[in-house]
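ok trying again, last paste got cut off:
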Amino acid sequence: MPQLPDDLDAVAVRTWCSLALEALGRERAEIDAINVYPIADGDTGTNLYLTVESAAAAVEAVFAAHETGTTAPATADAVRAMAHGALIGARGNSGTILAQLLRGMAGVLADSGDAAHLRLALTRAAAAARQAVAHPVEGTVLTVATAAAEAAQGEERELRAVVSAAYEGARAALARTPEQLAVLGRAGVVDAGGRGLVAVLGALVEAVTGQAPVRGPRTGSAKAAAPVDGGSAVGLPVGGVPVPAGGAAVEGPLDCPEDADGGGPAFEVIYLLEARDEQVDRLRTRLDALGDSLVVVGGDGLWHVHVHVDDAGAAVEAGVEAGRPYRIRITHFATESGHDVRVQAEPAQRAVVVVVPGDGLAGLCTEAGATTVIARPGEPPASGELVDAIRRAHAREVVLLPNDAALRHTAAAAAEQARTEGVRVALVPTRAAVQGIAALAVHEPDRGFDEDVVAMTAAAGATRYAEVAVAERQSWTMAGVCQAGDILGLIDGDVAVIGADVPATARTVLDRMLAAGGELVTLVLGEDVPDTVAGALEEYVREGHLAVDTVVYRGGHQRAPLLIGVE
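nice, full thing came through this time. structure:
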């Protein structure tokens, strides 16, 4: 039996993330089903799951970096990774608030994970979450977080007692949410975001004590008791979903036309934002005037913005004025019978989902009809993000292009999950963005699925790939020892050239690749590479290889200054 932690160290944080992901995986369908506030769109459980998945992946990356060492990562590294992962992967209103709760905890737990610091961490987390929400409402996840923090304050003993008290305080507060928020009371359910937080705190209890907390109804009325953490009571099934007269559980999200006020905003807008604090203060004011459900979380130059608005363009424009928004996601809501629901069109027959390293290629692939997922430098997408993209593609058949060898297992897991949801998914093992471009170029949705996949796979396989990157540190490579700041030419993933500048290194890489023949060179320029470099490289190829054509794309903010493909 593993030794139980006396304080919340890095291993315990890793375990907590893993158990929280498992718990939300089990419960997300039921949490989705009781999602009636602020929008009855049935995705709170899924959003929380995707947020925690991103947090867990970030913590796993920290441990992977220590695989060759003899000690575990520092607690500070683990909790900061958890908070950062949640921030960049946060989904929806509930996921954004959870990201801020984890960030608030991380700021304290980075110093120590003992009982006293955990009590303070819970308090700071609850306060930070309230500050992030433009108009806090009682009876929501904010209420549950505050109750957890207050319950923990009465425990002066060991860590186990603190986490258990916080969990029980959260459960009690969750049971009271229908009394505090009218829309919940009429639907006979608890707050969906609050229930998700209870699941996350339950995972913390299990990580610290080694035992899953007792899950069942608390004493009290059926309305208060039944929905708590999977319990049941008279007239209500497991999960707290109301039972109609016939006795069958309600399917899908619950709607509450009694709360209708003529319909809410038409769009949900979410993006990450690189901006200074003073710019974010102005952004909050502007977005608050544009819509509702405003939550802005983060700090230290990186923010996650969530808002419901009628003018999605204005919300994005406000982000552009404040800083640099990216990973922009806009979801349209339609108003039917006075309540908000997601638009559900007839699924397309086939779609392509492609991972791209920058905004420029995202635009290119979108114009070609693909659904894109942007992989920012140091921020690879989690499987949940790929599954979400497959769902957004809304097709019976999907071709998935991961465009990174390191994403092979992540993409395979996403494909398997999508298959369980009835989508036919083919994974083309593209290892670089230029291979994905080649595959997308031959995609023909009108031909048979297998035939299309074979053609795309063949086009990708016939494309050799390279990148010109900047060395981050001194290291041994196949081309010799490089120093931090050296320019590296990687061909098919291996360092083949060590140079002093991008143009010269790119010329050497092109010579080596074209020595084996080729008909087309693809150049993808990073945002800081001037057009003159592309022009000079085009001229260089034309002079040495008359029969070879060159195409140039702008990749935007990507990891490497230059990507090269030869086919």
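cool. DSSP finds 19 helices and 17 strands in the chain. The two ends are 55 Å apart (CA to CA).
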